[in-house]
Amino acid sequence: MIGDFLKRLTQPDPAPMADLDSQLALAALLVRIARSDDDYAQIEMERIDRILATRYRLNPAEARSLRSEAEALEAEAPDTVRFTRAIKDSVPYAQRIGVVEALWEVVLADGSRDQQEDALLRLVASLLGVEDVDSNTARMKIEKRRKR
């Protein structure tokens, strides 16, 4: 399955993704951002599971399974440019802001902002076509939610 997904993802002009493919792509992107600082912490894994469960109405076991599959995909996935392009091409702008919010949730899960995570998130937001102001608003929203 991962091989087929990667093959579709790396086509010069990939077709719009099916729902399951877009779920896997988002999950892999969340894993990629969590791994970007070389410290893939348990709290980040738990946050990814919670995001996936909430976003896709999955039970905890289904969310963990999707994350596990995404971990394997992320490890084999091509560069972030093609990866995000597949999401950008299949997800409306308002939902891409939601993707950026989810990414900020993972970045901030361990209570600190790492430079590598910040840099990758800025790149990903740009590649997703999300304006800086919207990404910043998403970050502030997540920070505010975390302070409650």
From TrEMBL:
In terms of superkingdom, the source organism counts as Bacteria
Q: Which Gene3D superfamilies match?
A: TerB-like
In what residue span(s) does the Co-chaperone DjlA N-terminal domain sit? 23-139
> What is the official name of this protein in its record?
Co-chaperone DjlA N-terminal domain-containing protein
